[in-house]
Amino acid sequence: MNLYRLELKRVCKTRMTAILLAIALVLAVVMAYLPVTFIGWTELDASGNKVSYTGLKAIRKRQEQQVSGTITPDVMQEALEAYQRVYRQYDASSINDIPVEVFYKELARYQPLVNNAKEAFADPKTGMAPGVMGLTAEDMQNFYSQLPKRLESVIWLEQDGKPGYEQAQAIAQKKFDAVQKPFTYSFGVSSDAMDYQTLLSLLLTLLCAVIAAPVFASDAQTGAQDIQLCTKNGGLRLAAAKLAAAFSITGAAYLLCGVVWILVTNALFGWESTQTSVQWLFSVTSLPPYTVGQMEWVMLVANFLIFFAEVAFVLMASVWAKNNLTALSVALISVVAPLIVYMVVPGSFGEWLSTLIPAGGIGLSNALLYKMISFDFLYAGGYAFFQADVLLASAPIKIVLLVGLAAWGYLRKTKVA
Amino acid sequence: MELKIQNITKRYRDKTAVDDVSITLTPGVWGLLGANGAGKTTLMRMLAGILRPSSGRILCDGVEIGTLGAAYREKLGYLPQEFGFYPEFTVQDYLEYMAALKGLPRTEAARQIDALLERVSLTEVRRKKIIKLSGGMKRRVGIAQALLNDPEILILDEPTAGLDPGERVRFRNLLSEFAQERIVLISTHIVSDVEYIAAENAVMKAGKIIAQDTTEGLVKQIEAKVWQGNIPMEQLARWEYRLRVVNLRNEPDGTVTLRYLADAPQLPDSVPAQPRLEDLYLWLFPEEMEEAK
Asked: Which residues form the ABC transporter domain (chain B) (predicted)?
């Protein structure tokens, strides 16, 4: 315990660690604030002039006029009728034909509802969504019963012909059954914000990889390890203390920044919006059975698991590296490896590889969030596996395996004589 | 306490760094002498248990050190040639860290750290970051950490590098006190560091131990091979080229007194000089003198 405390003190006293942790905290706040600036609102003032707002003021304006609470079929119908009335009034064939101030005054509050209705009633063969005028009041009353059919067609469009397709359909339907309906909605936290949570996770992983990479490698580089290996506790105990300290510091930094992001995001967008079903943010058939608020925490914990697997890999590389540069290079490459594999290696092999490498689930378009809200399945031996499930299930195994390899690699150095 | 090295060899791809070395170390200060590249550091790293020998065994009181594992490391104090420290640590932080590594309880560690800092004259700078200390002070921190667990076996690789003459004297006295009932092995190519305190010396050359004895015993090998003679200054260049000159001293009358190594006197009126360990070293490593020339 004393060794752990001293190792913790040593890493925390490193100037680089202090700088990186400060950057991480600033990033958490910036990443929470940036999506706020994407929100816009336009209205006419008393003189009839257009006035546009962005940021917090726009959010408050939208929230004043929002549709809020449980979105029943009747609310869906009300939304469609409002849209169709305005479309008819302006003889519009698309939203671009509606004056912007009218859009904000009359339709903005219903936009996510109508967009999701269009998605729900998309052509099952082509995936093409109908126009606003192509939807009926009856469709709106059948909105929720239409969703499983829509899900089936999406899976068919994306996965048909793959061995294990039937199983993929069953997995998706089972997951969607767990989604609470009718959905709830309140304007606020946006999909952009969730994107930024994912981006923050990537950046935090990069920063923490830089903190973890020298933990063992710098001792090998400076020769400090030679002295350590000659001491009573310089074997497994030191390895355990170093691993525990590295996990503690990077883990605490990650969780602190993640929590700060959630608190700042929700404070800026409004806590009420955390009750919104995630289906309004991404896709009407998204599988996570969560509200936005729940999803934020689920993503924090899930990404944290994957983050720990990556830190474990970086520490293992640090044990095996003979200098900081090697450890740091391997660490940084390993963080972006899933993204590179995802873009470069085609087919099923690439999908499995990008999932099973230590940082699988960290990245941009390949990140865990997008695997949770999309319909990506991995196939092996005629079986289908939901990729997000594999990412999450494999993370603890990776952690145990990589920590074991790190400890084993270090112990090998103590058993040379 | 006995540390027996049996036929130790360390081979690298294209070089044999230590070649079939056998020696038994008993309590007392041992000097390990040799030119750079003689294999001293490799031998010490194997003794410290951080380098695997290609063949041979190292036994501590009859048990292989690999088998002893942590029990052997508990007896060990080691200062490598390149002393890696944590730049962000103060002297106090670093010694506390090393004390924890050596398994000292916190109160005992605090007591030992206070005493050692006093002995190596670092009490004043204990709150200073190591990176801000002079080379000699850093070396003393290294010596302090090696002594922390009151080791029964102390291995010091070039411990006096960077120390000024006063520090060297203090270091020698410290080791002499410390070496009671303990094995202290000091590798150096600064002969005067071990000349007066080493009970035994081993001389390494090209990976082999070519001589092993007390300082007096070793010095006997070059009795009647160390000479002193006086020449006019204008002849210095000629004789310096021809002789293995250990030392030269300018005299007030414009002549130069040379101390040199040779099987027989070479200068007119040469007289035998009292041989010292340094003379033996230069006798055994003539290439060091060639480099100096």
From this structure: 3-231
For chain B, list residues whose CB is within 8 angstroms of any CB belonging to chain A.
Answer: 45-46, 48-53, 58, 64-66, 69-70, 72-74, 76-80, 82-86, 88-89, 93, 96-98, 100-103, 106, 145-146, 149
Read off the pLDDT of residues A147-162 as tens digits, 9 standing for 90 and up: 999 999 999 999 888 8
Interface contact flag, A231 B73, Cβ < 8 Å? yes
Tokens of A191: 């999909």
Where does a domain end: B220, B251, B266?
A: B220
Domain boundaries, chain A: 3-36+190-413, 41-166
Is residue A227 less than 8 Å (CB to CB) from chain B? yes
Domain of B162, CATH number, reads 3.40.50.300
Domain total in chain B: 2
Which chain A residue shows the shortest CA-CA distance from B82? A223
List the single residue in A with minimal CA-CA distance to B81.
A223
Q: Which residues of B touch A239 (CB under 8 A)?
A: none
Dihedral of the alpha carbons of B165, B149, B131, A23, in degrees to the nearest 10: 180
A244 interface with B at CB cutoff 8 Å = no
Query: In A, residues 8-67, which contact B (CB 8 Å cutoff)?
Result: 9-10, 13-15
Q: Are residues B68 and B178 in the same domain?
A: yes
- The answer to whether A4 and A16 have CB atoms below 8 angstroms apart is no
Residues of B in contact with A238 (CB under 8 A): 101
> Which of B67, B101, B112 is the best substitution to test chain A (most A C-beta atoms within 10 A)?
B101
Is this complex scored with an ipTM above 0.85? no
Residues B129 and B23: their CA atoms lie apart, in Å, by 40
B139 with B257, same domain: the answer is no
Q: Could you tell me if residue B175 is inside a domain?
A: yes
Q: Is B75 within a domain? A: yes
Query: Does residue A222 belong to the interface with chain B, where contact is any CB pair within 8 Å?
Result: yes
My answer on whether B144 and B210 are in the same domain is yes
Does B67 share its domain with B126? yes
**Partner-chain contact B89 A13, CB within 8 Å:** yes
CA pair distance A324, A210, nearest whole angstrom: 10
CA A4 to chain centroid, in Å, comes to 32
Q: How far apart, in Å, do the first and last CA atoms of chain A sit? A: 28
From first to last of its 293 residues, what are the pLDDT tens digits of chain B? 899 999 999 999 889 999 999 999 999 999 999 888 899 999 999 999 989 999 999 999 999 998 998 899 999 999 998 888 888 899 999 999 999 999 999 999 999 999 999 988 899 999 999 999 988 899 899 999 999 989 999 999 988 877 888 888 888 888 888 888 899 999 987 788 888 788 899 999 999 999 899 888 888 888 889 999 999 998 888 888 888 898 889 999 889 999 999 999 998 889 999 998 888 888 888 776 666 55
Whether residue B100 and residue A2 make contact (CB cut-off 8 A), yes or no, is yes
* CB-CB under 8 Å, B101 with A233: yes
The residue from B201, B220, B239 where one domain ends is: B220
Could you tell me if B121 and B247 lie in one domain? no
Nearest-angstrom CA–CA distance, A376 and A362:
16
Residues B238, B97 share a domain: no
Q: Do residues B229 and B180 both lie within one domain?
A: no
DSSP readout, A103-155? Answer: IIIIIGGGHHHHHHHHHHTS-TTT-PPPPGGG--HHHHHTHHHHHHHHHHHHH
Contacts of B51 in chain A (CB under 8 A): 416
Q: Are residues B216 and B202 in the same domain?
A: yes
Domain containing B247: what range?
224-274
